[in-house]
Amino acid sequence: MSRALLVWAALVAVLFAFAAARLERTDALARLLPSDGALAQAAAAALDGRAADVVLIEVDGTGADRDALRAAVAAVEASALASGRFARVRGHVDPLGDGRAVRDVAVRHAVALLPEDELRQRTSPDGVRRALLGWQARLFGPAGAIAVRGMTEDPLDLGGAALERLRTHGGPWRVQPEGGLLLDASGQRALVLATPARGALEGAEDAGLAEAMGPILAASPLPARWFGGPRVATDMAAAIQRDVSVGSTLSVLALVVVVAVGFRSVRPLVGLTLPVVSTIACVAAALAARSPIHGISLGFGGALLGIAVDYWIHLYVAASARGGSGPDVREAAARDAWREIRGSLGLSAATTVVAFGVLLGSRYP
User: What is the DSSP letter of 114?
Assistant: First the structure.
């Protein structure tokens, strides 16, 4: 028995050493996505476009004049750039350069920006006629030279219609460029767009961004708040870590209480050490092999731990039913019980391996 315990201790030590060297927990949202398929492609597009990463900082200038609002936006921009957390910060608008860039985007994506009904009307014979008459009026106007290029690139003026829609439908915040700032419909709140150096899908565990936002907002002399993809990611990461910690603690406490109350003895609790430690070591090593692992994946470890405990309980009950006292008698009873139920325990273990083994073929991490 002592030799078997030594072998078990050595094996557990090796598994824990492997886990300590390789296991890395992450809260990056990308780790929850499948390895291939439409979701993986969408995640790759989001990482390339960085749309989900933008931090939106709102500066509330209610009751303040435009100069004070402009100064507050400049203070937020400077503080955000000085923090080193952001690759790009934009709170001011260049009417000429940004206007041309927005129009180029509107022309390229006009079909996606325009509603289906409006697109159908503009591509109908009457719509084509109106578009050409509109270009004719511009060609003979004072900006005729500019109109030539626009007509060549966009004869149906779909880009102009898309640009007008962007101007009149500014999204959920109704943001419009005005006076060099990005203002809401009331003209009293300005928006600052900041792209973090680290993406929200790539590294949600970077809680340093959330901590850095406090001083950045404090730099504004006017009230300011922040939201966006990185805040959702960091809040989710904190919630996952809290739930895993609380769930693990409650599971262990519940296990101790149930076993202690059910058997009215601490002896089965001592016997649980071997299966519990073995299961934790195996789960940790398996997770380390696929590291980094998202926090949600740790929930499967709790299920395996509960199943491992069941096998020990079956063996303990079968051995206790034989009665007797003293170490030698109990050991003989345990050996006898093991010979009797090892077939059923082996079958149960096989079904567990097969059931969880199906997850190996999953495209999700």
Answer: S
| CA–CA distance, 92 with 285 (Å, rounded to integer) | 51
pLDDT, mean of residues 73-94: 88
Residue type, 122: R
Q: Helices (H), strands (E): how many in the chain?
A: 15, 8
Task: Please count the residues of the chain.
Answer: 365
Q: Are strands 293-294 and 25-26 parallel, antiparallel or unpaired?
A: parallel
Q: State how far the alpha carbon of 298 is from the alpha carbons of 141, 182, 238, in Å.
A: 68, 43, 15
Phi, psi of 291 (to 5 degrees): -65, 145
Nearest to 310 by CA among 345, 337, 334, 341: 345
Q: Greatest CA span in the chain, whole angstroms?
A: 110
Looking from the CA of 253 toward its CB, the CA atoms found within 13 Å total 6
Residue 303 pLDDT grade (very low, low, confident, very high; cuts 50, 70, 90):
low
Comparing 71-75, 133-137, 196-200, which segment has the lowest mean pLDDT? 196-200
Higher-confidence residue of 288 and 129: namely: 129
The H or E element that residue 224 is part of is strand 224-228
How many CB atoms neighbour CB 341 within 10 A? 17
**Average pLDDT taken over every residue of the chain:** 75
pLDDT of 69 = 92
C-alpha 283/C-alpha 34 separation (Å) is 21
Integer Cα distance of 118 and 108 in angstroms = 17
Distances (CA, A) of 191 to 18, 66, 121, 165, 256: 48, 14, 35, 20, 53
Tell me if residue 88 falls in helix, strand or coil. strand
CB half-sphere exposure, 315, CA atoms < 13 A: 23
Give the side-chain half-sphere CA count within 13 A for 157.
Answer: 19
Over the stretch 117-134, which tens digit does the pLDDT of each residue have?
888 888 888 888 888 888
pTM of the model: 0.52
Closest by Cα among 295, 265, 303 to 204: 295
How far apart are the C-alpha atoms of 280 and 272, rounded to whole Å? 12
